[in-house]
Amino acid sequence: MKHILTLLTLSFFIILSGQKKPAILPFSLENNSIYIYCKVNETDSIKFLFDTGADGSVINSNSKKKIPLQIDGTSENRGSNGVNTVDYSSLNTVQFGDIQKKEIRFTLIPYESAHFDGVFGTDLMKGKTIEINYHKKEIRLYEENDPALDIAGYEKMKLHMIDNYPAVESSMIINDKEYSGFFGLDSGADDVLTIASPFAKNNALVKTMKTIGKATARGSDGSVYEMPVVLCPAVKFAQKFLYNLPITLSASTEGIDSTEKMAGFFGNQFLKRFDTVIDFKNGFIYFRLNENLYSEFN
């Protein structure tokens, strides 16, 4: 019996030692947005916006001079407020941490005032389980179904992919009435929450909440648009309640903000209050409140 236990212990050790450690990407949090550095083709230290709201990755066309790219053609880009035609480049190699992906297609979009070189979309995230830890300022990319991933203390939610956009069920509570729907998760947006125009119009939300200002936004399609900012009394998210949130009400007639499939989109000024684990393969997402909970809303 003693020999059997020894063999079992040795076998368990071999299994554990053979597990691949997650790739770790340090990030900076700037104006509520997550930034990481990657290598593109032969160019290192390319600054990317980490964007769960982008199903494809992007190179800022103002940065293309320092990144060797071959333009292959044009495609349609659907921004938050409209649609435009942009160039794209295929067959690129991207390295982040110890992970290398080949034949990556980049859309080229002119972010005129942006201080980053590209957008790291969900096309580069899928195939891994993603952990975003705001305390350590680390993104960890685990192998799918990795038993080493610790989700103790997290709230588990169903991850819905709506037109390839990650979303969860959530709700707003206004004057004792609950307004529920699917809400997109957009870490690439630096706001709190934008309500899609059909949902805002159908529920007459501009009349149910106090208007406290206006916000000007620029979409990836190049459009600049203004939205009213209203004070939302409460949001229920991952079985937690957050109170007195400044949110924007879209009036877009085209682009993603005009969708009828989702109620709205949480930006990273909201999402940064939760450490997050995204399990694309199994269709779940996990949230845990962190030290950003009591940071002020802008």
Word description of this protein:
This protein has 298 residues and is mainly beta. The chain has 2 domains: 25-142, Beta Barrel (Cathepsin D, subunit A, domain 1), CATH 2.40.70; 155-289, Acid Proteases (Cathepsin D, subunit A, domain 1), CATH 2.40.70. It has 5 helices and 22 strands. The strands form 3 sheets. It has a 6-stranded antiparallel sheet with strand order 1-11-10-21-22-12, with no helix packed on it. Strands 3-4-9-5-8-7 form a 6-stranded mixed β-barrel. Strand 18 (224-237) and strand 19 (240-249) form a beta hairpin. Mean pLDDT is 91; it is low at 1-17.
Concise overview:
This protein is mostly beta strands and 298 residues long. The protein is built from 5 helices and 22 strands.
What is the molecular shape? globular
Poorly predicted parts: 1-17
Question: For the largest beta sheet, what order do the strands appear in spatially?
Answer: 1-11-10-21-22-12
> Under the CATH scheme, which architecture of the largest domain would be assigned?
Beta Barrel
Structural class: mainly beta
Protein name: Aspartyl protease
Keywords: Hydrolase, Protease
GO biological process, one term: proteolysis
Pfam family, one: Asp_protease_2
Helices and strands in order:
Blueprint: H1 2-17, E1 23-26, E2 28-30, E3 33-40, E4 43-50, E5 57-60, E6 71-78, E7 83-96, E8 99-109, E9 118-120, H2 122-125, E10 128-133, E11 138-143, E12 155-158, E13 160-162, E14 165-174, E15 177-186, E16 193-195, H3 197-202, H4 205-208, E17 210-218, E18 224-237, E19 240-249, E20 264-267, H5 268-271, E21 274-279, E22 284-289
Parallel strand pairs: 4-9, 5-8, 15-20, 16-19
Antiparallel strand pairs: 1-11, 2-3, 3-4, 3-7, 5-9, 6-7, 7-8, 10-11, 10-21, 12-22, 13-14, 14-15, 14-18, 16-20, 17-18, 18-19, 21-22
Organism: Chryseobacterium culicis
Domain Peptidase A2: 46-60
GO biological process, one term: proteolysis
